[in-house]
Amino acid sequence: MRCPRCLSVMVFQKFYGPHEHFWGWRCIYCGEILDQTIMENRNDPKRLTRVHEHLLSKARLSSL
Ligand SMILES: [Zn+2]
Fold first, then answer.
1. Which stretches of the chain are DSSP H helices?
2. Distance from the CA of 2 to the center of ligand 1, in angstroms?
3. CB burial of residue 64 (10 Å; 0-12, 13-18, 19+)
4. 59 C-alpha vs ligand 1 centroid, how far in Å?
């Protein structure tokens, strides 16, 4: 599993919320948290475009 924000490694772990606990992915680098619900909510074209633009800018930076 790769973080959509920084492409670092994500770990699967248990989170404790105010009312319940759930399992999800947490990025070890930037702290991004994903679970099944969040991932489904992000399946929209606008979000994908933004992630794509982020990857492009990152690629440009690394080629300097
Ligand atoms: Zn990250």
1. 36-41, 45-62
2. 8
3. exposed
4. 16
Q: What is the pLDDT of residues 15-55, one digit of tens each?
A: 887 888 889 999 999 999 998 777 777 776 565 555 556 66
How does 6-44 read in b/e, with b if 16+ C-beta sit within 10 Å? beeebeeeeeeeeeeeeebbbbeeeebebeeeeeeeeee
- pTM for this entry: 0.56
* The residue type at 41: N
Ligand 1 centroid from CA 3, angstroms: 5
Distance of CA 2 to the CA centre of its chain: 7
